[in-house]
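User: quick one
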Amino acid sequence: MKEIDITKNDLVPKHTLLNDGEKLELFNQYEITLRQLPRILVNDPVVQNIGGKVGDVVKVVRKSPTAGEALYYRVIVRG
Amino acid sequence: MSEQSQKEFELPVKITEEIEQISKELRLSKEKKEKLVEEVRKSYTRGMFEPGEGIGIIAAQSISEPSTQMTMRTYHFAGTAGIRVTYGLPRLIEIFDAKKEPETPMMTIYLKREFNNASEAANLAENLVEKKVLNIVKRISLNLNENSIEVEVLDKRKIESVSKVVKEMIKNSNVKTKEDKVMVAVKTENVKELQKVKEKILSLQVGGVKGVKNAIVRKEGDDWIINTIGTNLSDALKIKEVDERKTYTNDIHETASVFGVEAARNVIIREAMKTMQEQALDIDPRYVMLVADMMTFAGDINSIGRYGVAGAKTSILSRAAFEETIKHLVRASIRNEVDNLQGIFENVMIGQVVPAGTGMFELIVKPDES
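Assistant: Done. Structure below.
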């Protein structure tokens, strides 16, 4: 059986988990709280791939046609 | 944004790269390059939206105005090679309504480098198409004496796979093979029952990928691509010739379940832009990106409309003003909901300054800082 690595697909941008320090830095930079972030489900295939837990923040490095590279953050929520 | 990040925000990667490239081409000195960066930064800042600007409305207008020029009907091209797909306005509506199943689901399959040639592509295309017993049977007959069904197969090589699926899927049966026939004995006296089993045998899948109705090979640059009607991404990716790095489907929900919500967002943008470019409409991708961001905000796919983004608004008055007024008012009164009047709609309704543009800001006086 072939092993499928979905994170290699062109459609899937790079997801990384933030540690507590980076989280705090993010909240301070934009003056926001965890609840205000866009969400991603805990059973999302990519989240399961990187082993995220509910309450973690995922940093997404998107390829953007206008900016080249764009940062986006999502908080993991229960699906 | 806080003060600090506003002062020293970074220019987007693409612009930085372009500056590097141009300064290399024109052999700019260090001072000139710095000046260029400063100028670009200035005009970039000018191009930014001001805080409080209603970008949602601008995006909505920028997409809808050109969309009125789109073809309303889907035409049928008789005789042209390729696959007929939904396009134009119907497809755009399909995307933004986040329909569970698109009218013409389609996969675009790329092959791995070592299989990237015409014969492999043709071979795979053939194998992708779902085959049922019905498609490979020469004759099927009922033997009422022995209460059995005889399936005569066109290709003798397929006989193994037929008897295998029948054994698996038909309960209480005794399967035997004889030359090019599969004999299925069923424990029943009832002819009607036997007929039912026969129908069931005919609809069993013996090969291909479930859901794929047709596959067409075409060449794009150096790549051989297979377009399929009907999608089944998770099964197609398991095939060893398929390149999982590029293969995709136009089904947004399927993408979300296989590749995740961020990939689904990319499909929304790609499909919406493609649909509009086919109609020669030039829309800034930023607007479509904004819409896609709203659709994927909650982690799953929400449609733009009464059951999706618009129905999830917090304000009761705003929801009631959009569609299904009575339903929302009744429900809100039963649940004892409170409208905090923080949105645009509700403030227009009661005649207050709307929290957009300059109305978004209030003065805070700090008396001790003189």
